[in-house]
């Protein structure tokens, strides 16, 4: 499954844990349609990971996203918008067409 790649190893471990968990569900629920689908889905994920192969050497990872800016949940200062024009409507003291 390409376990040599350090990025793939955690996915392999997660799939192994998922496979074991679905096996326990199968023992609890029996051979139901839902369990068969889960078994099939886990097998498909494992197959897809095995087919992934090594990363393309030409691939350049994208930029690391910057930390998200946290916007506080407090009332904002409405006076910030007193001289702003509403897009498409013009200034607040004029009537829209």
Verbal overview:
With 97 residues, the chain is an all-alpha fold. It has a domain of 53 residues. Helix content is 42%, strand content 0%. It has two helices and no strands. Helix 1 packs antiparallel against helix 2. It is elongated, with a radius of gyration of 27 Å. 0% of the residues are buried. The model has no long low-confidence stretch (mean pLDDT 83).
Taking all Cα atoms into account, the compactness measure Rg is 27 Å
**Total beta-strand segments:** 0
Determine the structural class based on helices, strands and strand pairing. mainly alpha
| SSE succession | HH
The biggest beta sheet is recorded as:
none
Number of helices: 2
Task: State the distance separating the first and last CA atoms.
Answer: 65 Å
Proportion of residues in helical segments: 40-55%
Task: Give the DSSP E fraction (strand runs of 2 or more residues).
Answer: under 5%
Mean model confidence by pLDDT:
83
Low-confidence stretches: none
What is the molecular shape?
Answer: elongated
Keywords:
97 residues; mainly alpha; 2 helices; 42% helix
């Amino acid at each position: 499954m390409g376990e040599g790649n350090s990025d793939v190893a955690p996915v392999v471990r997660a799939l192994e844990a998922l496979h074991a968990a679905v096996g326990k569900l199968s023992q609890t629920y029996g051979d139901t349609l839902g369990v068969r689908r889960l078994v099939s889905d886990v097998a498909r994920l494992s197959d897809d990971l095995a087919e992934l192969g090594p990363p393309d050497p030409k691939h350049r990872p994208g930029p690391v996203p910057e930390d998200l800016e946290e916007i506080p949940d407090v009332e904002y200062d409405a006076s910030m918008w007193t001289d702003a024009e509403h897009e498409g409507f013009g200034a607040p003291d004029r009537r829209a067409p």
